Amino acid sequence: MEYSPAPHTPVSGLTMVTPSETTVDDLHPQVEYNLYGAVTAARAVLPAMREAGAGTLLFTTGGGSVNPIPMLGNVNAAAAALRNWVLNLHTELSGTGVYAAHVAISTWIGANAPEGFPSAAPEQIAPIYWTLHTERSRPEHIFTG
User: Fold this and answer.
1) pLDDT reading at 136 higher than 70
2) pLDDT tier at 12 (50, 70, 90 boundaries)?
3) Distance set, CA 82 to CA 38, 90, 91, 105, 134 (Å)
4) For residue 111, what pLDDT is reported?
5) Which residue of 5, 19, 45, 108 is surrounded by the most CB atoms within 10 Å?
6) C-alpha closest to that of 90 among 63, 128, 49, 58
7) In the chain, how many H helices and how many E strands?
């Protein structure tokens, strides 16, 4: 399973707010979208993976989950919560045959990146997921381009 909470069009209730301007009302939809969505997705497949003793759970966030960007204060907080949960899940599942890992992507994916923002082609990023799935050795990969 791969979970990537990244809207490419505006989603009602999902806004970007700096840390000092963040309210619970700004943060709640981000936590719901990022963390609660991941937990729900994982719970849908994890029982069968545990029973089989095999499976991979990969979760993607933006790089702000590791290196926050002020204009994304509420988004980064929710993504960091997802990252923390995934790293904890990785530890819990160790030795069960089920593997969980986090991927933080600190670039714009594809063309049309905002000026001055690093970008990468999907073909540059995709192998990260395959390597994590096949090697199953680390809980996280931070892609910076």
Assistant:
1) yes
2) low
3) 7, 12, 14, 14, 22
4) 82
5) 5
6) 58
7) 4, 6
